[in-house]
Amino acid sequence: MTGTLTDVLVAVALLLVAAAATAAVLNRDPVRQALVLSFLGLSLALLFTFLQAPDVALSQLAVGSAVTPLMILLTVRKVRRRPGDGGPPQGGAGDGRRGAGRDGRPPR
Amino acid sequence: MSAADGWLLAGLVPLLGLVPVLWRIAYGEPGDRLIAQNLACLLAALALLLTAQGFGRPAYVDVALVLSVLGPAGTLVYARFLGVLPGSRLVRWIALAGVPAAVIPLCVATGPGRAMVKLLVIGALLMAGGLVTSAGSRDEGVGA
User: Fold this and answer.
1) pTM value?
2) pLDDT at position B84
3) What is the pLDDT of residue A85?
4) Which of A14, A84, A94, B56 is most deeply buried (CB count within 10 A of its CB)?
5) At B79, which helix (H) or strand (E)?
6) Percent with pLDDT over 90 in chain A
7) Whether pLDDT at A105 is above 60
8) Backbone torsion region of residue B84, taken as left when φ is above 0, otherwise alpha when ψ lies between -120 and 50, otherwise beta
9) Do A23 and B59 touch (CB under 8 A)?
10) Cβ separation of A1 and B18 shorter than 8 Å?
11) Chain A interface includes B108 (CB < 8 A)
12) Domain boundaries in chain B?
């Protein structure tokens, strides 16, 4: 009975992983993808625990559900700020403008 | 049906609760997505606690401990980036009712000792994290 229940737990976790991965692929907005990716890391950690590998689950939890989505969010933020930096001035002010933007944090 | 089966069945409940949460994360509004991420961490931690008892391996509780620290912190970070932290009655109710409903029977089953202290710490972290992140954006997120 315990073996059957473990199989059921593993099957549910596998279904969650498959659904979360599909949702992460099908979403087009990077910010939303980051949140789905964090859910994917969470369900992978659950799956690893049910497969009796809690050490792998620990590292998966730290990397998959915290660090990777955070890096994606930081990257998206950086990339989205770039067009606002170079947008309005048309000529000649490239370098000075960039330095001012980095220090002065222009409004988005 | 032995006691271990009972714990595993109990762990299956929050695991199945993750399915609608995934739906919300994939298709919800921005505020809904944040609530769903918060709720997913809470439910996953409960599932980990219950199945650790079901497998008879108290060491598996460590994963739930890490999750109970990372989950609310991650939610606050996302709230900073997305600019919203909506209040959620569901998260508050699960933190106030669901967490004690899982932790107190686990403490009774474990008996006094270091393992029980660990369980109590995890439960307190989960409740505190759930209450802070479900309180709404008046005191969190925007000013941070």
Assistant:
1) 0.82
2) 78
3) 59
4) A14
5) helix B61-82
6) 38
7) no
8) beta
9) no
10) no
11) no
12) 3-133
Which one has a higher pLDDT value, B143 or A74? A74
Interface check for B39 against chain A (CB to CB < 8 A): the answer is: no
Tell me the C-alpha distance between B31 and B133, whole Å: 12
Q: Which residues of A touch B47 (CB under 8 A)?
A: 46
Token pair belonging to B33 = 């997505």
Q: For chain B, how far is it from start to end, CA to CA, in angstroms?
A: 50
Chain B CB within 8 Å of residue A49 CB: yes
Q: Which of B15, B50, B18 is nearest to B36 (CA)?
A: B18
What residue ranges of chain B have pLDDT lower than 50? Answer: 139-144
- Residues B33 and B78: beta-carbon distance below 8 Å: no
Residue A42 contacts B, CB cutoff 8 Å: yes
Q: A102 pLDDT exceeds 50?
A: no
The 10 Å Cβ neighbour count of residue A88 is 9
Task: Note whether B1 contacts A: Cβ–Cβ < 8 A.
Answer: yes
Summarize pLDDT for A27-66 with one digit per residue, the tens: 888 888 888 999 999 999 999 999 999 999 999 998 988 8
Q: Is A27 on the interface with B (CB under 8 A)?
A: yes
Q: What b/e sequence results for A29-66 when a residue is b if at least 16 CB atoms lie within 10 Å of its CB, and e otherwise?
A: eebbbbbbbbbbbbbbbbbbbbeeebebbbebbbebbb
Question: What pLDDT is attached to residue A20?
Answer: 93
Q: How confident is the model at residue A95 (pLDDT cuts 50, 70, 90)?
A: very low
Q: Which of A4, A12, A16, A39 to mutate to test the interface with B (most CBs of B within 10 A)?
A: A39
Query: Which residues of B are less than 8 Å from A42 in CB distance?
Result: 40-41, 44, 67
